Amino acid sequence: MTALSSRIAVLYLVCVSANLCLAASPLVPGTGYKVDVVGDDFETPGWGFVHNFPKSSEEIDDQRRFPTGKATNDRWYEGIKRGQPDFLKVVPTPENGLPGSTMSLLMRTRDSGVPGVRSYKMEQDDLVVNGHTRMGGPVAVSYGPSCVVRVYMPPFDKWENRSGATFGFRTSLTTHAMRVDPQVREEIKKGKKRFGLFERQPKKEWGPDTYWPGMFVQFRSETDRRFNEDSAYFTIRGSQQGGDIRGPEITETGWWTLGISCTADGQVHYFVKKGIADLTAADHVTSQLPYGYKAEEFKTFFFNVCNQNDGSTWSTPWIIDDPSMYLASGQVVNQANQTRRGRR
User: Fold this and answer.
1) How many domains does the chain have?
2) Which residues of the chain have pLDDT under 50?
3) What is the pTM of this model?
């Protein structure tokens, strides 16, 4: 256990005993203190990303391809399960962005899925914030962790002409639960392990598990015979039963503010707001125990960029700005920031 982890554990006990962090209502993302060592404002000159192609696709074909991609500022890395978006570039902040912001991050992908293989279906890539590493480890949800990002949505005529998921904003959380051994679960998912009519189903056991709740932007393309015009809406992943929850309609494009928070009762809270203003209680969409899990620790957050994997179709051009992490405890934040700075 690192010195930072030990201090966090002590503060956790103090916090719980004093009832300082137990949430009686949804925690508004952005509450408390910003963790400077996590997230990015894209304002530092020379921002770059070393892709190290071909990218990983462990979730699809069990292939981890090293070295993995990473940002030159150590604040981002390639998702090992699906690989990073093909195109990542810092660009001038679109009009009506955050005051003082001059640069934001453009994300697009074309060759999603397994490198060199065309599935001709929707695939997704992951760009992950280097959160738990730069914090010195995961953070107990008792500290009220949250993450916030501003997302620029281009006019609908610039979106990929495909109905379905196109962008995701998600968290990585840990818990303990009755679950099938992760390796067996992956074998079942990929069809490598099957059970006959009279064979026993996989045994469940109590242990640690990681899950990834968040929100997706769903597009309805006018090129789809089901829809007369382009439109979009949010879905929340997921409900206590594991399904998606219908979220707000995206009535206009431009800047939106998205936020996700966790509280000591294990719930995950989702917030959405049109524009760039800070989130408030009025922007609350829903609170859930996704998959029936109670969150114990917050590891990090990340973004999905989705497209039709046909080798030629580019995803919608997504632009994000100021992705940030917050904690309710200023003391924990100060320790994390000072510890990270001391390593440089």
Assistant:
1) 1
2) 1-23, 342, 344
3) 0.89
